[in-house]
Specification:
Number of domains: 1
Strand content: under 5%
Structural class: mainly alpha
Number of strands: 0
Helix content: over 70%
Largest sheet: none
Order of helices and strands: HHHHHHHHHHHHHH
């Protein structure tokens, strides 16, 4: 019970605290006026773009699966991916959605290695593409905001990403004496799969291109909502400012990014002259659009056997609880 509730309490507290702090800095009556004056047609267009975002995510993960030689139909890929998107908004942090995606893809016939590695590498490619896009658009940001602080951060992050991928791809060079451990064998498999994706130009470039298009599409969705709020924002502003916001949102410290997104949006759009009330309304509406887009994934989850999954999870926990008290600790492998 504690393991189930504690993440909600911690991350929910962070989300509520950040939202309360941001709201205390803006004129709420002005924010309400802007929200009620929102052009509904732009909201509909943003919903369409977010549905396209789901499709791009399906293609991205599908390419990763095929790079790993994993046999998984496109219909199954779309269904499991949508389920993961749904859980990414109802579980604390984005990792919960990835874990559910691994579970369902394993249940749908993938091997455990393919299920885990494909989701992990798809996430790695997505973050790498996001950092790359931020670095590519940074000259535009510096031209727009000459005194922008911390311009060295994202090139450093890009270097860290590249080094991380190279290290990940070489983990199968571990001494063979360690391969008797199950965890090490899993790492060796991950290293081989990393090379299949990142070191094969056809798969790596194709997946990277889809990931970049998805990040650009997300920026366009925010721009459409900004137009609906009648904000003085250029499309290039959103292309430059939204990717860093999304990158910050990937930190698993809040529930579905709430609070973190609002704080980052107010800070980022403040650099281009958007007042805090407008920025927080933009962020909240974007969050609502994201939630509405993800909700059909809950229906897919129920149709795919969500009740069975929950029952199996509870049964596994009960078995573990029954066995743990009587199970002696394993001997240490170290002398």
């Amino acid at each position: 019970m504690i393991k189930r509730i504690l993440p909600w309490l911690l991350k929910g507290g962070i989300s509520i605290g950040l939202i309360a702090w941001v709201l205390s800095k803006v004129d709420m009556s002005n924010a309400w006026d802007k929200a009620t004056a929102m052009d509904g047609r732009m909201v509909v267009l943003a919903l369409v773009l977010m549905q396209i975002q789901i499709g791009l995510g399906v293609v991205r993960w599908g390419l990763v699966l095929r790079a790993l030689d994993a046999v998984f139909r496109w219909a199954s890929t779309a269904a499991v991916y949508y389920i993961g998107v749904f859980f990414s908004i109802v579980l604390p942090g984005a990792v919960g959605g990835d874990a559910v995606r691994m579970w369902f893809s394993r249940r749908a016939g993938l091997s455990l290695a393919a299920a885990v590695n494909s989701v992990a590498l798809e996430r790695a490619m997505t973050v790498f593409a996001l950092v790359l896009l931020v670095c590519l658009t940074q000259p535009l940001l510096i031209a727009r905001i000459p005194d922008m602080p911390g311009t060295w951060v994202f090139p450093l992050l890009l270097a860290v990403c590249v080094i991380g991928i190279l290290v990940l791809a070489s983990l199968d060079k571990l001494p063979t004496s360690l391969h008797r451990w199950k965890l090490v064998r899993g790492v060796v498999q991950l290293a081989g799969d990393t090379r299949k994706l990142f070191f094969h130009p056809a798969w790596s470039l194709g997946t990277l291109m889809v990931a970049l298009i998805a990040h650009i599409n997300l920026s366009l969705a925010v721009y459409v909502l900004a137009v609906g709020l009648n904000l003085d924002v250029h499309v290039l502003d959103t292309l430059v400012l939204v990717p860093p916001v999304i990158l910050i949102m990937t930190l698993p410290i809040s529930i579905a990014g709430w609070g973190v997104r609002e704080t980052a949006m107010v800070t980022a759009f403040g650099f281009v002259g958007i007042d805090g009330a407008s920025a927080i309304v933009l962020s909240i509406i974007f969050g609502i659009v994201t939630m509405v887009t993800a909700l059909p994934g809950g229906l897919v989850f129920l149709l795919a056997g969500g009740k069975t999954m929950e029952a199996e999870e509870l049964a596994d926990e009960k078995v573990a609880d029954d066995l743990n008290p009587a199970m002696p600790l394993p001997p240490s492998p170290l002398p």
